[in-house]
Amino acid sequence: HSVVRNALFCLETAANEKEIHVYTKALMAYTFALAGKEEKRKALLGLLEKEAVKKDGSVHWQRPGKEPEVDLPYFRYRAPSAEVEMTAYALLAHLTTQPAPSQEELSFASLIAKWITGQQNPNGGFSSTQ
């Protein structure tokens, strides 16, 4: 459909910009995965991996310039909703590929899933509204 084709062209043009916010990269990676644009998906995931926070056997993304987390006894830090959302989009982008994700992608995706599950509140939900 021409509207979808034009929208994808617009996104492909935007993906070539030098300065793209990390949230936008994650969202675009998932969009290109759904559209079957494998090269764009992989390129954006490569950029995202360079910005990933790898800590305690898990992987996630955070906003640039964010204050570091404070380790306090008896307090478990939960990330803001935007960070949960962008990390979830990155996870979806890793898992949405044809053919099925490689073993390497699944291993990396499991590290992302580990971080996301750690963000659940006591009721099993998340701070995100998505």
From TrEMBL:
In Pfam terms, one family for this protein is TED_complement
The cellular component terms of Gene Ontology attached to this UniProt record, alphabetical and capped at eight, are: extracellular space
Against SUPFAM superfamilies, the record matches this protein to: Terpenoid cyclases/Protein prenyltransferases
InterPro entries given in the database record = A2M/Complement_sys, Alpha-macroglobulin_TED, Terpenoid_cyclase/PrenylTrfase
- Which intervals hold domain Alpha-macroglobulin-like TED? 2-130
TM ranges: none
Give the top-rank taxon of the lineage listed in the UniProt record for this protein.
Answer: Eukaryota
Q: What is this protein called?
A: PZP protein
Q: Which organism is it from?
A: Pampusana beccarii (Western bronze ground-dove)
